[in-house]
Amino acid sequence: MSTLKTVLHPKKDNNGNTIFRLTLRLTVNRKRSYLQLSQNIDPEHWDAHAEKLNSKHPKHKQLNRLIRKKYGEIEDYILEMESSNKSYTAIQVMNAIKNNKKKQTFFELAKEHIEDLTKLEKHNRAISDQSKINRIKEFAKNENLSFEEIDDCFLNKLKIHLSSIGTISERSIMNIYVLIRLLYNKAIRKNLVDQKFYPFGKGKVKIKYPETIKIGLDEMEIRKIKKLNLSEYPEISKTRDVFLFSFYLAGIRIGDVLGMKWKDIVGGRIFYKMGKNNKTVSLKTPDQIAEILSHYKEDKVSNSDYIFPQLKKVSKKDSKKIYTATKTEIKKLNTNLKKLAVMAEIDKKITNHIARHSFGNIAGDKISPQMLQKLYRHTHLSTTIGYQGNFIHKSADDALDSIITF
User: Fold this and answer.
1) Per the domain annotation, does 49 fall within a domain?
2) Which of 43, 175, 228, 359 has the fewest CB atoms found within 10 Å of its own CB?
3) What is the pLDDT of residue 377?
4) Percent of residues in the chain assigned helix, strand, coil, to nearest 5
5) CA–CA separation, 355 and 373 (whole Å)
6) Structure pTM?
């Protein structure tokens, strides 16, 4: 339900005097938005009942034509939206009229974002971001959500809504905030929304990730895994190789490990591009890695062949199939790692990502943060320091022992 009126909108000028601005006021579902016509009007020249200037105003004909013109534009826009069964808000309509064109809505820009990721074959990111967009859409219940409507109130209510579902973690909610921030910044660059509406930052909505506890395996547990006789369990053995391959190379992500090809190994070094951020990485192949590679050399068909068998049957030209197969194989590996933990008598949950935590746990404070940053392929040193803080306990333990002496 919408109501459109032409009114004189009062405002104080710099001298404290009240001026009356010629304004179109649109109300949609009890929410208002205004379109200023850049004219200050003396109330004596205004016919409130007829919503037009009277003949006392020297330019009453011209201004009344302006009112009718803008009135018509607003009504036409609303009619277009309603005839297409599209929802709309007062602020969205007024913004469209102000700019004399339909601006991209939040979800239209979000759709463009997903399409761009898909074209770039970043399928993991595209699927993840689409899931976040679906969550926002479920809450907003407005296909034509404008960026101006995404303010601190909207974001706080979104957080409450997502938290109430019960299955969405605080970290996941912050990831949704990050996506909204990314799209908002893109909208500002495209002049879809004014910077003044930006809802994030100092004094506004802050994105703060909750602290998490990261637990990795220790040296003894890695040795247990390595020493297991798995000759009768070939699938578990291959899972162990993938896990240790990741661990020995400072916790390379398992998706990157499965995508490794023989041509990535040159002169005793591994050269590869990280799937997460496209960073190029070069690492020495330790003796432990050479030993794992020896298990798979007889199955090598060509230099462009995958090292590990999980993706060998997937077309290298179909990035979507590679992504889907990788996700499937990672699930299988995680299932096998549970069995491996039982066989090694390790009372910790082991997943593919634990290889990275295990490297951090064993590294402790033996290596400088700068070197760990390079090994972890972190963009910022602060990320490394925060990450490694989960595994450095000696100083705190010694301090505690020095106090508890009685």
Assistant:
1) yes
2) 43
3) 63
4) 55, 15, 35
5) 16
6) 0.60
